[in-house]
Amino acid sequence: MDLVIRYVNKKGEVIERFLGMVHVNDISALSLQKTIYDLLLDHSLSSSKLCGQGYDGASNMQGRINGLKSLILQDVPSAYCVHCFAHQLQLTLVALSKKHPDVNNFFDVVTNTLNTIGASFKRREILRQYQVEKLEELLKSGEILTGQGLNQERGLQRPGDTRWGSHFKTLEKFLIIFSSIVNVLNDMQQDSLLSLDRFAAKNLLGNIQEFEFVFLLHLIFKMLLFTNELNKALQKKDQDIVNAMRLLDLAKIRLQTMRESEFEFLMNEVYSFCGKHDIMIPKMDEDYPRSKRKRSGVSYLHHFSVEIFYAAIDLQLHELNSRFDVVTSDLLLGMAYLNPIDSFANYDKDRIMKLAEYYPNEFDDNKLRDLSFQLDSFIVYARMPHSKFINLKGMKDLAIVMAETKLDQTWCHIYLLVKLTLILPVATASVERAFSSMKLIKSDLRNSISEEFLNGCLVCNIERKVFATVSNDAIIDLFQSMKTRRVQL
């Protein structure tokens, strides 16, 4: 288990620090709670100061009665838990692919194609050669330009239900190297020595060269394009939950706009793509063949527009609304009313006071009264023409400006509320990066070292920017001051 703490420093900056990795034999909620408290205590941190929790959604974390979040909430009522936004966003796509049969079949074809080509080093090399030839052809025709960072070689990446953003990257590469994939499958169909491989290549070619596959490729890619901005923003350590909510709303608005007015534009893109790759385009007024024995009574146009386009977008919007229902809570709405965007356009004193009531340990009756007076003065000052609070982009900017101008001392209760908003975790990206670092650190040689030493290596690797500021002399002095050692220095 990895533990990362999130706090606001004296400059008003949001900081996330990796505390350590702990091996746990018992993954029950009670055992995990004790492990977390012990690790905090080892760093002289009190569990009573917790102001938020964030997990990846495992059942032992999220249980309403005996889950880890519930046990911690019993001890610290203000340690509100927010399910990792990035994990929730990924689950919306997983739900879409499982609930919509056409989308499910589409991802099966994509995965099988990538597995077939990626299973052989020879096929991967042939794919790379076709990419080089295609790139040279495009450069000669002037369709693409040369430059630093442009026209990078594209590899194959399989989509994973638990890898954030993997589906978007997969479809993006599939679109770019589509012709090279077709060429590799053609070669495989004609030249492979095994009949099973030839049969697999023939089936995959037939699938990816169908109009419906190309339509779904463009549709799903465009839908993921709208949520990809949110996905990338959630990877930032200093991301605040109010800005994440705004980006989520933006993604839903763009999806709704696409549903209402962009079907014809998408169809034109698909027509153009099919023309470039010699893919047959069906007549839209003809019946869509569901069965060879009887007519479906549904035209191609109805199938692509109603049964796929509208249905897929509606399902995605439904999943976004249902899985992110937490953003409608009074807690998060109260945070949004303190957002400095457009000179505090959403400011609502009553909602902000309601937000403060969620933190009884920080705001007793006297402090709530003081907060009310401070809010009256603060909003007048913040909206003055030459105020430094003009043109702020989010809560993190508000905290930094208040710290720089020493107004965090003048309006200390407002600043505390801003810090509580920023501390609430948005995503568990830092924890995911810690697990990725473990793959680099835990080599065959280090498998034989103790867990304590391995944890030390991980901390040094993940927080290397912090350790880079520590001088060698300070390390030597600390080592010399240690009592237990074998040699005299």
UniProtKB/TrEMBL annotation:
SUPFAM superfamilies, per database record: Ribonuclease H-like
Pfam families linked to this entry: DUF4371
Listed name of the protein: Zinc finger MYM-type protein 1-like
